[in-house]
Amino acid sequence: MRLLFLFIGWCILFVLCWPLAVLALLAFPFVWLISIPFRLVGITFEAVFGLLRAILFLPARLLGGFRKPASRATAGIGN
Which of 16, 24, 35, 76 is most buried, judging by how many CB atoms fall within 10 Å of its CB? Predict the structure, then answer.
């Protein structure tokens, strides 16, 4: 659905100002290539913070904290 809206928006831009639409079409691959390092940095930071969170919460998990309550289906309630 998002791709359809993007395409319709590009078509409207093409009708209103075709040089700008063609420029956007030609510039898109370069913008995508420039954004790759930022995506890699974001993935790396997410992994580092996930590791730190796992290390910090390990004692609580070992002591029995963060237990999820049993769902009704697994507890046999409501059958």
Answer: 24
Residue 50 in tokens:
């996930």
Question: What is d(CA 73, CA 54) in angstroms, rounded to the nearest whole number?
Answer: 28
Alpha-carbon span 11 to 33, nearest angstrom: 24
63-74 pLDDT, tens digit each: 886 666 666 656
pTM of the model: 0.54
Q: Sign of the CA dihedral 16, 20, 26, 31?
A: negative
Q: Return d(Cα 48, Cα 39) in angstroms, integer.
A: 14
- 8 Å CB contact between 21 and 13: yes
